């Protein structure tokens, strides 16, 4: 097979948006190849560091907070010491205001490219674009052909049209931002001729494993919601191509590290699938799940011919020894990953929000069980409440009942809200230290009350 050795082993690759569905997989795939990864996040994500450092070592992954991609000083700090950049992060707010999204995406993309150009050590830059930068699929429309020179100009026009239907604005504006963002990137590279090799990856709808409970999972999150009985998001799905998220990440790795890959638009279009295909597959994988809808009748298909998809699949074969994963395989991997996350959460006591279940009663039971696991937090705090009330001179019987009420309230709050363990630990330790000191200096009065 071809080698992923365009950069020296041990080099650091910067991955923006490393806590996202695609970004986390890009980071994971780069780490698998033996490289270091620095991931950007908008706010601290300790779970992300634990995820990768526990798997690859503390010296292999680190996070850096970067909340504004137009901040050149912050970008310079992030880029210092790296050899390649995968710019995955983008605006996924799905705002209905094109002025709030499209210009920002263009400016942020150009700023990232310009900042990277100031570092001679950076040899590769890859931008995560989207299938929506070339088209929005239309069901059963024949004769549509996509190649490397195709751009979604119709989405750009529609995004700025004040008469566009309200329900279409979020996706058309997103598609326009991806179109204009990628096109501006290629123009910037052509005009400024930086010292790095630039490529883009255009993935379609991604399915497959979600690496951590804190990651919603984008379109795989829609599938997870279907299994839980929430069909709102997946109702927006139209027949289109899909790509496994691992294949998407591998295409990024190939663009970053492939020895013979330069200046390419790489199309992540694996296989066409409609809602019926998804529902039939889910029913086969989870036959006891009553939340999965009946397959749609006469739904239709995406008939688009995506010429560059064959070239992308060949890259996967050349560098990884296999072509596209099919949608059935991808959905199975995604569901298997959800089960693994549940088991991992139960073992590590991550909290009830991570304890997914298709059954509402089971989810509640998970929350109760988690509350009982935090018994060591709630009991000391309840006893602390008892001590405080006794110190305050409250009658012993009243204090007993009120302390019991505090304990019950904490358990209920733990069940409803989620993981209060860390908060309770800090609060307990602080109050316990205060109480110990109070007792040392006021023992006689306490003894009298007790």
TrEMBL record:
InterPro entries: Epimerase_deHydtase, NAD(P)-bd_dom_sf, NAD(P)_dehydrat-like. Gene3D superfamilies: NAD(P)-binding Rossmann-like Domain. Pfam families: Epimerase (PF01370). One of its GO terms (molecular function) is oxidoreductase activity, acting on the CH-OH group of donors, NAD or NADP as acceptor. The keyword Oxidoreductase applies. Residues 13-203 form the NAD-dependent epimerase/dehydratase domain. Keywords: Oxidoreductase. Belongs to the NAD(P)-dependent epimerase/dehydratase family. Dihydroflavonol-4-reductase subfamily. This is NAD dependent epimerase/dehydratase. It comes from Colletotrichum gloeosporioides (strain Cg-14) (Anthracnose fungus). The lineage of its organism: Eukaryota, Fungi, Dikarya, Ascomycota, Pezizomycotina.
